[in-house]
Design brief:
Layout: H1 2-31, E1 39-40, E2 58-59, H2 61-70, H3 76-86, H4 109-118, E3 132-136, E4 143-152, E5 158-162, E6 169-171, E7 178-183
Parallel strand pairs: 1-2
Antiparallel strand pairs: 3-4, 3-7, 4-5, 5-6
Amino acid sequence: MRFILFLTVFINLLFATSDNIKVKQLIKAARAQVGVTKFYDPAYVKIKYPMGDIPIIRGVCTDVIVRAFRKVGIDLQKEIYLDKKAHPERYKGLYYTNRLDPNIDHRRVKNLQAYFAAKGYRVKGAFKPGDIVVWKLPGSNLDHIGLCSDKLNSKGEPLIIHNVGYGAKEEDVLRKYKIVDHFRVFK
């Protein structure tokens, strides 16, 4: 009985440690885009599949997330393409077309949101480093997405790594916009 208890504790620690490492890698990968991705560019571009990307100097808010997740071994371009192909109902009506498109589907906030929700990553409560936040931008119906940093503001809440029009930045904007969703991939 003690062995089973020890094994359970050991496995839980192993997974917790693995997730902690992935959160650190995820944040590091997002932060590495700051000062490198200098322009906000929502243009439709044909890219390779899988692991396709536009030039790193350009991007949108979703590109910050997609690029960071690739550094921890998750290609959201491929994952969303396969999920949308297998479960088109999750994505139906989110955009002007329901057509499957590996060039752009992973670069759309609502598609990332639908994917993360379907995978059971939605959480409530305090924001932790590595969490993903979705907002509605003020004065518009535009969606925005960013990643919680391990750097905290004076209230103890994480800064956000995102691209909201001026290239990738790490800023204190968690409460600046209307929060509409919250995800945690790594527990």
